[in-house]
Amino acid sequence: MTTHFISAEVDLPNTAEELDSAIKIELEKHGEPLRWAVTEVDVDRQKAVVEGYVLVKLPATASPVTA
User: Fold this and answer.
1) pLDDT of residue 63 exceeding 80
2) CA distances from 62 to 55, 59, 65 (A)
3) pTM score, two decimals?
4) Measuring CA to CA, how many Å separate 43 from each of 7, 19, 32, 49, 59?
């Protein structure tokens, strides 16, 4: 497993609960969300910028390396 830094833009919904859900859905596209923060809000465009870290599972190797 490894962590990745993600920056994403989400639409601003009507409620805080909808925003929380939209952020988690967007981050889950890249891995398992660990922590995130809204770093910018553009009211005119109705967008929020989210930055966070996700946990990504590495693909399994065909055979283990032995020494």
Assistant:
1) no
2) 22, 9, 10
3) 0.79
4) 18, 14, 28, 11, 40
